[in-house]
Amino acid sequence: MTFPRIAEEKENPMEKEKKTNSEFIIDALRTGGELRSPEITQKVAEDSGKNIKIQDIASILAKLSNYEKCDLGFFIRKKKTNKGYTYSLVPEALDLPAEALYDLTRKTGKNRYTLEQIIADHPEVKRHVKASRLKNQAEKEPSKRGRKPAAATRMSKTPTNAHTGAASNENLQTLVTKLLEEVSEQGGLNINVNLTVRFAGPEGGE
């Protein structure tokens, strides 16, 4: 099988030594065809000049095409045929720079293209990205809405101890008054009552 060469890419002798197998696979997919693992393996072997095992390519393809493990997976179509699975890039991804697609296979790296940056620069690819992925990214940004001011929170939790002492004194006075009234009603009895009452103020003074 022959593969069309992508016009904008220039061959660089040093590129073969620097590229990873994942990047060579992406180069094969950027030709625009629907390729099976053996065909991709052949293309990678030709471009890299290395002896590549189909099992290794199949393992990498399984990861790259899984959007839960790799952001590039949103843009890879995996189709089942009677001869096995074929892999291809969605049409919109064919217009993305190669470096942007390479960076989607990485989790870290300085100045790398992120999925969010690619969507911002190329909004047409957004329809291929799961809404849950976009939502999860948005939730990582802290939100300041809904937080109560600190002063209001402290005021709402202030105890009412200042009123508690006064209420206790009033209850005690009412109890003493009722007791005296009850003793007064027992006029036929000679009852001598010695009553000592101490009122404790809010700060423990007598």
Profile the largest sheet: 3 strands, antiparallel
What's the helix-strand series? HHEHHEEHHHHH
Radius of gyration, taken over Cα atoms and rounded to an integer in Å: 40 Å
Strand tally: 3
Contiguous runs where pLDDT drops below 50 for at least 5 residues:
1-11, 142-158
How much helicity do the residues have? 40-55%
Helical segment count: 9
Mean pLDDT: 76
End-to-end Cα distance: 105 Å
How much of the sequence lies in strands comes to 5-15%
Q: Strand order across the biggest sheet?
A: 1-3-2
Description:
- It is built from 9 helices and 3 strands, in the order ααβααββααααα.
- By secondary structure, the protein is mainly alpha-helical.
- A 3-stranded antiparallel β-sheet has the order 1-3-2.
- A hairpin with a 2-residue loop joins strand 2 and strand 3 (84-89).
- It is rod-shaped.
